[in-house]
Design a protein that fits this description.
- It contains 11 helices and 20 strands.
- A hairpin with a 2-residue loop joins strand 16 and strand 17.
- Helix 2 crosses helix 6, helix 3 packs across helix 4 and helix 3 runs parallel beside helix 5.
- The protein is globular.
- The structure holds guanosine-5'-diphosphate, 6-O-phosphoryl inosine monophosphate and magnesium ion.
- 6-O-phosphoryl inosine monophosphate binds next to helix 4.
C-alpha cells in the first residue's frame, strides 16, 4: 500500500532541536528528505559521546540503511556541502552511497554570499542578522528565474550560465559600492561543483513518488522554524523560504494529500538568533541563565541566542499554520531547578488582550504570563515529575495537540516517548 510522507519542522524561531529528533526517529523511516533552507541551518546530533553539526545534509545520515535526500527546495553551497561530506567521511560515515541530490535544487555561488553581505551592510541597524550564507540572494535568483540548478552541472553550457549570473551580480555589487574579488572563491567553487556533479543526482519528485508507492516511509526534515517563514514569520526578520509544512510539498514535489503526521519541535522556552521581534525575550539574569544552561550559542555562526519564556500564542499559531499533529518538547532540563516557570498565554496589544499572533509584533506587544511550579532533576529512565506533566498539560490544553516526545538532554538517549492522554 502507498505510504504517506511525515513532516518534522521547527515551531518557533529555529534551533528547536530538529536534528536531534530526526536522528532519534530516523530508524522508523527509509528516506529522510530536507525540503528547504541551506547552509544557514545547523542541526546538532549527539550520540556515543560525539557531537555532529549538519548544515545541508539530512539528519538521517548516521543511521545505517537510511537514504538521505536533499530536495529541490534546498539551496546548496557546493563548497560547504563538500566540506560537510568530507567531514562525515573523516568520521567514518560512508555518506555518498546514501545521499541523493535533487537536480532541481538551486546552487549558491560565491557572489550570492557577497550580495548577502552588501544587503545587510546597506540595512545598517535594520539588518536581518542573516547568517550571510547567500540564502536570500540565491532564492531571489530562483524566483527571478536567473538561478543555477544542480541539473545545470550536467549541461555543456554550464560556464556560460555561471558567467552570465556572476556578471549580473557584479553589476548589482557595483551599485552597492561593494568590492568583490571574483577569483578569490571561484576556483574552490569550480572544484567543488565538479565533485558535486559526480554524486547521485536524481529527479527527486519521481524518486519520492516511487518510494511512497512502494510503501516505504519518508520523513521530510525542515530547517529554520515557523516564525522565520517568508510568508507567515515575523517579516522582514525571516529567512527566504517556506519553512512551514506546505514547504515540504513544494520543496520535495510531494502532493499535500500524501502528507501524514506533522511533528512540530519546540523548546520548553524560546530562543531567537538574529534581529526581529521576540515578545517574551528576557534581558535579565533569567535570560542569561537560560543561555548558559541551554548552551544557547548558534550552531552555524556561534552567535549568542536571545532567550525568553515559552510563547503559547506563537506556538498555537505554528500548530494552525502547519497542521501540527504531534509536538516534541525539547530542553525541558534547561529549566531544571527553577522554583517557578512562566508561560506566555496572551498579549496585550494597544490595551486589548488577545491570544492571537498579531500581523505586526514589532509594535507594543506586552506578554501576559501565567506562573507554574518548576521541577528538579529529570531522568529519561524515571517517571517525569508531576509539575513537568502539569506544564505539558497546560501547553496541550492551550494549543490542542499532544506532546508525544520529550527531550531531557542533547544525547540521543535522553529522550522520552510519551503517550499523551491529555488531548487525544
Ligand atoms: P536544530 O537547528 O533545530 O537542529 O537545533 P540546533 O542543533 O541548532 O540547536 C539545538 C541545541 O540544543 C543543540 O546544541 C542540541 O545538542 C541541544 N539539545 C537538543 N535537545 C536538547 C535537550 O533536550 N536538552 C539540552 N540541554 N540540549 C538539547
Ligand atoms: P536551523 O535549521 C535559527 C535566522 C538568522 C536570521 C534570519 C535570516 O538550525 O534551525 P538567513 O541566513 O536565512 O538570511 O537568516 O534567520 N536563521 C536561523 N535561526 N536557526 C536556523 O536554522 C536559522 N537559519 C536562519 O539568524 O535572523
Ligand atoms: Mg540550528
Amino acid at each position: 500500500m502507498a505510504a504517506r510522507m511525515d513532516v518534522l519542522l521547527g515551531a518557533q524561531w529555529g534551533d528547536e532541536g530538529k536534528g536531534k529528533v530526526v536522528d532519534v526517529i530516523a530508524p522508523d523511516y527509509q528516506v529522510i528528505a530536507r525540503f528547504q533552507g541551506g547552509p544557514n541551518a545547523g542541526h546538532t546530533l549527539l550520540f556515543e559521546g560525539r557531537k555532529h553539526v549538519l548544515h545541508t545534509i539530512p539528519s538521517g545520515v548516521f543511521r545505517e540503511g537510511t537514504i538521505n535526500l536533499v530536495g529541490n527546495g534546498v539551496v546548496i553551497d557546493p563548497i560547504i556541502f563538500l566540506k560537510e561530506v568530507k567531514g562525515l567521511e573523516a568520521a567514518g560515515v560512508d555518506v555518498r552511497k546514501a545521499l541523493l541530490i535533487s537536480r532541481r535544487a538551486h546552487l549558491i555561488v560565491p557572489s550570492h554570499r557577497a550580495l548577502d553581505a552588501a544587503s545587510e551592510a546597506e540595512k545598517g541597524r535594520a539588518k536581518i542578522g542573516s547568517t550571510l550564507k547567500g540564502i536570500g540572494p540565491t532564492y531571489m535568483d530562483k524566483t527571478g528565474r536567473n538561478g543555477l540548478r544542480v541539473g545545470d552541472l550536467e549541461r555543456s553550457d554550464l560556464m556560460d550560465r555561471y558567467n552570465a549570473l556572476v556578471r549580473k551580480h557584479e553589476r548589482l555589487l557595483g551599485m552597492h559600492d561593494h568590492v568583490f574579488d571574483r577569483r578569490e572563491a571561484e576556483a574552490e567553487w569550480l572544484d567543488a561543483v565538479q565533485e558535486l556533479r559526480r554524486m547521485l543526482l536524481v529527479d527527486s519528485e519521481h524518486y519520492l513518488d516511487q518510494v511512497l508507492r512502494d510503501g516505504k516511509r519518508v520523513l521530510a526534515e525542515g530547517a529554520q522554524g515557523t516564525l522565520l517563514d517568508i510568508d507567515f514569520g515575523t517579516y522582514p526578520f525571516v529567512t527566504s523560504s517556506n519553512t512551514i509544512s506546505a514547504g515540504a510539498s513544494t520543496g520535495l514535489g510531494v502532493a499535500p494529500n500524501r502528507i501524514g503526521r506533522i511533528t512540530g519541535i519546540f523548546k520548553a522556552y524560546c530562543t531567537r538568533v538574529g534581529s526581529g521581534p521576540f515578545p517574551t525575550e528576557l534581558d535579565d539574569a533569567t535570560g542569561e541563565h537560560l543561555r548558559q544552561a541551554g548552551h544557547e550559542f548558534g550552531s552555524t555562526t556561534g552567535r549568542a541566542r536571545r532567550c525568553g519564556w515559552l510563547d503559547l500564542p506563537a506556538l498555537h499559531y505554528a500548530v494552525m499554520i502547519n497542521g501540527i499533529t504531534d509536538l516534541a518538547m525539547m530542553k525541558a532540563d534547561v529549566l531544571n531547578g527553577m522554583d517557578t516557570v512562566r508561560i506566555c498565554t496572551g498579549y496585550r496589544v494597544n490595551g486589548q488582550v488577545t491570544d492571537r499572533m498579531p500581523y505586526d509584533i514589532t509594535s507594543d506587544v506586552e506578554p501576559i504570563y501565567e506562573e507554574l511550579e518548576g521541577w528538579g532533576e529529570l531522568h529519561h529512565e524515571a517517571p517525569l515529575p508531576a509539575s513537568l506533566e502539569r506544564y505539558m498539560a497546560r501547553i496541550e490544553q492551550a494549543v490542542g495537540v499532544p506532546i508525544t516526545l520529550v527531550s531531557l538532554g542533547p544525547d540521543r538517549a535522553q529522550t522520552v516517548l510519551r503517550q499523551a492522554a491529555t488531548v487525544r
